[in-house]
Amino acid sequence: MVQRKVFNLSALLGAGMLVASCTTAPPPAPITLAGQPCARPPVMHCPDAECGALVTEQGPVQGPAEGRRYFIDYPCDLKPDEKVTVVLSLHGAGSFGNWQRHYFPILDQVDKYRLVVITPNAPPRRWTAEADDAYLQSIVTSTVNEIGAKNVKAFWLAGHSQGGMTSRRIVCSEFFANKVDGFLSLSGGRVGGAPGRPPGGFGPAPQNGAPPPVPAVAPPPPAPPADPTCDFSHIYTTGEYEIASLPDTSSWAAKYDCGRREEHDLVDTKAGYIYDTSRQDPPTKSWGRPAAPGKAEVFDYGGCKDGRVVADVVRLDKGHTEGLEPVVTEEIVKLMTRAKGGKIAAGAR
Questions:
Q1: Which residues make beta-bridge pairs with 299?
Q2: Topology of domain 40-194+227-347, per CATH?
Q3: What pLDDT is recorded for position 4?
Q4: How high is the pLDDT of residue 133?
């Protein structure tokens, strides 16, 4: 009799487990952001070479302003309550959103590092406070609302050239100061001490055999801007030929009591996607030549207080417009995701 009772109890337990397993809720379906279904390869993705007119595409997402569209790249398996790093990536003057997506191609890293990347366009191809600040705020707000503020692990501003200068202009503004965890300057000015321009100046050469401009007496260089007053991590990238020399100190690193600067090198055997094809008659080292494999030096000020990251990345034998190669791109993403985040999530509590 005892054995029979034990047998029946085991059978009942087994049946209960079977029923429980059959009634377990399925995992939540991936979410869609901005009404733009996720696709692989990403929409309007350039091939490895000869991207052509595709770089001028404005993006599939209709934003809050009439006629203004943007890109949003995110993991195709993004779950409703998943923690992500959000990046607002701004193109330089004269450029386009899809050029920016491939100049700094973190769209290739969104799945691995759980990124949501917003890449808008400035209609006159240059960012201004009057035309763009409210627009940028609105698309950040709508994205955060869709993700859920508590799920924003970190929020970064990233910008190339004038997009980098715009990021620096807005980083401590009323809207962004309590949201931005990090600022990535892609040849858009260094926080913590300016490196200066290279001897002979900076910029594209005259095109189609045009005579060089008549030299003029150059005005004295403007004083470097003061360091921003709010708190954020900072990564500065530049081509070797864009600068006179990289300072070996950083007042931004000193602000966070960072440790001794450590250097390590990177090698990319694959070229970036794009370069400025309109300025190759003749090309100049400072402005940038056709995309090619390359090397980079990473200078990391480790041990910063409050989990901040401060670093410089110098791409050797590069100028202003050669698109970043895959290894150096991923290294920058690693630095970004290593840094402390949480401003937006903290504001949601």
A1: 263, 312
A2: Rossmann fold (3.40.50)
A3: 45
A4: 97
